[in-house]
Specification:
- By secondary structure, the protein is mainly β.
- It contains one helix and eight strands.
- The strands form two sheets. Strands 1-3-6-5 form a four-stranded antiparallel sheet, with no helix packed on it.
- The longest helix is centred in the N-terminal third of the chain and has 16 residues.
- It is elongated and about 80 Å long.
- The chain starts with a helix and ends in a 5-residue tail after the last strand.
Length: 127
């Protein structure tokens, strides 16, 4: 009986260790300098599931409405890659430096990752 209990405890401990894990290539992307005459800028964050179970992105929320993340809704299998496409729309915003965040929540480790985009929108009249 004692051996069965120990065996069960070991199996349960190993099962708890198996999980999805998200690893981003980079967590900050600098969009550089662009004119307010071309206020829409796009970039892509790439990641890999380095865990043992399928990875699910539960949500990706931007810090403001000018930044829109689009992500894969299907589970990402272990060893597979995925991406989060981000569109920044500076139309109607003041020229200058900006930094926006995207909070990504997953079923993996870490469960929350914060991504950043930044750049400098130049005044069209200064061109």
């Amino acid at each position: 009986m004692l051996i069965a209990a120990l065996l069960f405890a070991c199996v349960a401990a190993n099962a708890q260790e198996a999980q999805a894990s998200i690893k981003f290539d980079k967590t900050t992307i600098n969009l550089g300098s662009f004119s307010e005459t071309e206020p829409i800028q796009k970039c892509t964050f790439t990641f890999k599931n380095t865990g043992d179970l399928p990875l699910v992105i539960n949500q990706a929320i931007a810090s403001c409405g000018c930044t829109v993340p689009k992500y894969t809704k299907e589970p990402i299998m272990p060893g597979a890659a995925g991406q989060i496409d981000v569109t920044y729309n500076g139309k109607g915003k003041f020229p200058g430096h900006f930094k926006k965040s995207i909070t990504v929540r997953t079923n993996g480790d870490p469960s929350v990752t914060r991504l950043y985009i930044e750049g400098d929108m130049t005044d069209a009249s200064a061109e």
